Amino acid sequence: MKPPFAIAVSPTGAGKTRDDHPNLPLTPGEIAKEAAHCLDAGACMLHLHVRRPDLRHSLGVEDYRAAIDAIRRAVGNRLVIQVTTEAVNQYSSSQQIEAVKSLKPEAASIALREVIRSEKDVSNAAAFFEWMYQENVIPQFVLYSPGDVEYYFELRRRGVIPGGRHWALFVLGRYSVGQAAGPADLLPFLDLWRDTPIPWAVCAFGPNEAVCAAAALALGGHARVGFENNLFLPDGRRAFDNSELVAVVARAAHILGFPLAAADAMRGWFA
Q1: 1 in a structural domain
Q2: Is 82:106 a contact under the CB 8 Å cutoff?
Q3: Using an 8 Å Cβ cutoff, are 152 and 161 in contact?
Q4: Type and span of the H or E element at 108
Q5: What is the pLDDT of residues 169-210, one digit of tens each?
């Protein structure tokens, strides 16, 4: 039997507004409703961005708690909730770390180049990563380029990143013209990753999101989709909501004979 394929969804992002899409979920209630639809479509994880009351990006603990509580009321524990530490030029490395430590979420995404901006940040990051390991907060290290993959391995060699209980996200297309990814963009990441026994996933900017997710599926990874990076279905139509983007990738997995991972199965990867 083929291994389960995990679909995560990032329904909101840090900067999009309803000018970008009228159905962009922004409030805790809207995000919770979208979470339930995405669960039904095949997602097992929600990558969570939250907003302040003025709808600006937030890492505020109370903003996060309001959204997490709403999601849990809607779906129980059937989705892994992964919070973001994305800085968006608003938060320092120490503020990102403090947000996670104060919230103590189930999972968090960490962009290495945002938490470690210079060598002076390394010791604090090492202590933070060790805290996450000990507290069973699942990190996903966000890697935007093959250079970030090389830096990840350097930090592993130096003992800054513990050896297990984490995974990676390869971001495709951020630095491409028009931020439009293609499946070939995954290959330089995998050339460096090779036989590393750490789970990985991709997210892809632009309308080739589903094609990139299918490439990850075929090559042994997982995928994240959603309005944060893409608003369009493979046929060029704008998706009505995030669950349509999830459903496209879920259908691809079904056609190729891959079962979809449930949230508890994903949790088991990091036990």
Answers
A1: no
A2: yes
A3: yes
A4: strand 107-111
A5: 999 998 666 678 999 999 999 999 999 999 999 999 999 999
